[in-house]
Amino acid sequence: xxxxxxxxxxxxxxxxxxxxxxxxxxxxxxxxxxxxxxxxxxxxxxxxxxxxxxxxxxxxxxxxxxxxxxxxxxxxxxxxxxxxxxxxxxxxxxxxxxxxxxxxxxxxxxxxxxxxxxxxxxxxxxxxxxxxxxxxxxxxxxxxxxxxxxxxxxxxxxxxxxxxxxxxxxxxxxxxxxxxxxxxxxxxxxxxxxxxxxxxxxxxxxxxxxxxxxxxxxxxxxxxxxxxxxxxxxxxxxxxxxxxxxxxxxxxxxxxxxxxxxxxxxxxxxxxxxxxxxxxxxxxxxxxxxxxxxxxxxxxxxxxxxxxxxxxxxxxxxxxxxxxxxxxxxxxxxxxxxxxxxxxxxxxxxxxxxxxxxxxxxxxxxxxxxxxxx
Length: 374
Ligand SMILES: *Cc1c(COP(=O)(O)O)cnc(C)c1O
Description:
The chain is an alpha/beta fold. It is 38% helix and 13% strand. The chain has helices at 14-24, 32-45, 56-66, 83-90, 136-146, 200-207, 213-217, 237-247, 250-274, 300-312, 328-332, 341-349, 361-372; strands at 49-53, 74-78, 95-99, 121-127, 149-153, 161-162, 165-166, 173-177, 190-194, 286-287, 294-296, 350-352.
């Protein structure tokens, strides 16, 4: 039996709750389970409003609509991230401005942001890579000086902290993912976290096909009509029921992920530092969300040999993120080799180890043995 890179978590209550949702007769969005998930996340993040969405990608699209991103506006973001971080804004005609990663956390290098700000800059989008916080105090200060909004793509950061504050509570908006590869999931899903109450009403409208349906259901208007642009960003109650079965045991999920992360880190450190291999760096003032465990190999060749070495031992490891500035679209926006050296190095050299809650202890030991025998 080979060891997969990921196996989606199951708490065991998912199907009971889905049945309950089905029997309740309310299967479209915003029923009881959606409300429970939203309330949990609002409490956890100390946020004004959380709205479940169909994906993190869609929550990012909602952010771009809420910020009124127009053609020609510039969006500052890291090159080393998933395509959705950029696509949601380019979909509105904006121009991405890619920033290199810090060499240690691989997060956006905050010291490179200010020099890229122009009169066209509209927003800064940050990604807490692997669940470790970006340097938010610095980034928020830069944004404030220039009157810019900060959006957190918090797909990997839920349950992580920066200086005691939850990741996802720091930007004007944060976007969550409940894709099957994330710490808690419902197959495909997400949430928009709104930390400035001024945006709540318009977000409800955008999420409900550009109608004032939410206000109508609250009895605040007597008819429900088309009032703005919008789309369909509500997940079905079936998915919210599945998600609730995971959120209600999130503490246990996180405790288990921490254990897996720490065993990797403890067992691999010596071997890694003796072989010039990088491991995740968590600054003193950050608490990780334990989203992944990765290694940064000395070269692309070493990375490919390492993946083959694990594959020969029945273990699946995965690399990711071609730097966005060197993707087909990124190069059309002017991206060139050498623009973001740390991001390019991560694209070539980073590899992620299997990481999922049902990873058995013996399997975990077997992976560690395979790693340190490379
Ligand atoms: C997973 C992920 C996304 C996309 O999430 P979906 O819910 O699949 O849209 C976006 N950004 C980052 C950083 C991610 O890790």
